[in-house]
User: Which sequence fits this backbone?
């Protein structure tokens, strides 16, 4: 029997090349071998206030982005999280079993709290319990994510295990699937920081998948590197050039070593041009597909059908969980 695979992305900010390389690319290449689910995590997006019109647009943009990245509704149940109510119900049941201390230790929470000061919404705090529910609800065993989500997968395992101990075997436990290369694409201007989709659109260090290719070329050509002028992977001492090597290797589906071999003797200017060419090739192909999906009525139909299929599976599972907990009357 095929293993279940799931991943999600929040409808906040603007989708970056890091999002593609870190999570969706892997999902797409594995979707046929698994019983696959992918969703737009709109409930997670609401853990901080979003303007209704804006989030609605981002949800549809993201849906077209996923399809243009290669998510195939023939093989994958593709939906919006809030269309399947079972996520919220299980989110509550999981949250009740989670300790305050466990959530306080989440690095993502700690860094967001440091920025927000004392006015942190409860949603931001309990966010990992909803994410755990998303995964446990489908007994997903494979979860392709970037490395910033590792801790959230670990807490999912802890919570799943706890519920299994209390109520008998209810859930399968997930493994994260973090790619060897590209699990953390860095900001081009500040290569010790992650490329983030909350950066402003004119940010020079972030490649957005909907950027026009002239802009991305400029961003790549002005990427921060070092004075060594050797195309060699060394994350610690040459984070900028290592990041560009990773981008090229992942987009070409080849190894870091192969890139080093091919470009070892090139100067940085020539190498950057090659990286820009590869990114441009990817973006032009991607953007043509994106426009087609974004303008098509098929987009909503795909999301509705995906939600129906996911719901059928989620309902069954939730009934089973309630029975195990003694609350199915
Ligand atoms: P987010 O942008 O935080 O909603 O993340 C969506 C998915 O993309 C998650 O699996 C992240 O781990 C992944 N991701 C986000 N930014 C990057 C990045 N710079 N490099 C690699 N993966 C990333
Ligand atoms: N928290 C994830 C992120 O910010 C998005 C997400 C929500 C997710 N639920 C999930 C990812 C379940 C994988 C599985 O990137």
Assistant:
């Amino acid at each position: 029997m095929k293993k279940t695979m799931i991943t999600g992305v929040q409808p906040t900010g603007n989708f970056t090349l890091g999002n593609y390389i870190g999570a969706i690319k892997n999902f797409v290449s594995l979707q046929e071998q698994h019983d696959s689910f992918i969703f737009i995590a709109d409930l997670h997006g609401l853990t901080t206030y979003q303007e209704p019109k804006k989030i609605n647009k981002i949800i549809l943009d993201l849906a077209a982005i996923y399809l243009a990245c290669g998510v195939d509704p023939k093989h994958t149940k593709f939906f919006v999280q809030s269309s399947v109510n079972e996520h919220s119900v299980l989110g509550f049941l999981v949250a009740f079993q989670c300790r305050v201390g466990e959530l306080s230790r989440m690095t993502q929470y700690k860094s967001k709290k440091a920025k927000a000061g004392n006015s942190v919404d409860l949603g931001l705090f309990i966010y990992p319990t909803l994410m755990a529910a998303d995964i446990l609800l489908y007994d997903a065993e494979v979860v392709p994510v970037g490395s910033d989500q590792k801790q959230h997968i670990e807490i999912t395992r802890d919570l799943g295990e706890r519920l299994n101990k209390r109520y008998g075997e209810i859930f399968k436990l997930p493994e994260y699937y973090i790619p060897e290369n590209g699990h953390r694409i860095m900001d081009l201007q500040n290569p010790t920081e992650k490329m983030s989709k909350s950066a402003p659109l004119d940010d020079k260090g972030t490649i957005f998948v909907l950027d026009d290719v002239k802009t991305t070329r400029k961003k790549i050509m002005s990427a921060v590197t070092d004075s060594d002028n050797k195309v060699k992977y060394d994350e610690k001492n040459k984070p900028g050039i290592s990041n560009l090597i990773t981008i090229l290797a992942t987009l070409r589906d080849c190894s870091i070593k192969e890139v080093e071999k091919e470009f070892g003797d090139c100067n940085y200017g020539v190498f950057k041009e090659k990286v820009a060419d590869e990114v441009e090739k990817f973006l032009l192909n991607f953007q043509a597909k994106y426009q087609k999906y974004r303008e098509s009525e098929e987009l909503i139909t795909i999301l509705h059908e995906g939600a129906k299929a996911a719901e059928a599976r989620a309902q069954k599972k939730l009934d089973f969980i309630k029975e195990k907990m003694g609350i199915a009357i």
Notes: Residues 268-295 form the longest helix (28 residues). The first strand starts at residue 4 and ends at 9. The beta strands are 4-9, 35-40, 76-80, 142-144, 175-177. Residues 213-291 form a domain with the Tyrosyl-Transfer RNA Synthetase fold (CATH 1.10.240.10).
